[in-house]
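Give me C-alpha cells for this 99-residue protein.
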Amino acid sequence: MIRLLVGLGNPGAEYEDTRHNAGFWWIDGLARGLKVSLQADKAYHGLVARVNNAPGASGPVWLLEPMTYMNLSGKSVAALARFFKIAPEEILAVHDELD
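Here you go.
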C-alpha cells in the first residue's frame, strides 16, 4: 500500500509555471480533493500534509512537496520516510519525466 505520495518540483517563482513542477501540481490537486492543506515542515524540508481518511487506506497517508530542488529531493523524502517507517515500496513519486 502507498503511504507517501511525493510530488517533485522546484521551489521559487521562476519555476512556478514550468513542467518541472508537474509533481507539485499533482499533489496540490490531490490535497484539494482530499480537503487537506500542505504546511511547511523544516524537519522534512518541504510542504507536508497528513491524510487520515484517504479512500482505501488502512492508516495515514502523507503528501509531500520537497522544497530542496529536484536534485536534492531525496533528503526530504528520506527524512519523512525514516521518521514514519515508510518502506521504499510504499512511496509513489510524481515527476515530469517519462521513465
